[in-house]
Amino acid sequence: MILKLLIFAIVAVLIYRFFGGKLPSIGKSASEKKLDDDTLVECEKCGTYVTVKESVIMHGKYYCSKECSI
Would you give the end-to-end CA distance of the chain in angstroms? Predict the structure, then answer.
C-alpha cells in the first residue's frame, strides 16, 4: 500500500513538472529570485524602464545605460 502511494506521488510530480509546473523551493526569499531576461526593471538614476537583458548592473543596481551608471 505504501509503495503504491510512493509511486503515485512520484508520477504526479513528474506529470506536474512535464506540464511546466515549478515546485516551490525551500529557503529562498523573494529577494533571491532570479529575474528573467524580459523582466522590466527601473533605472536607479533616470527612472526609465528597461529589460534585465538590456540593463547595466553596477553594485547590485540596474541602470538603463553606461551614462546613467556613472
Answer: 65
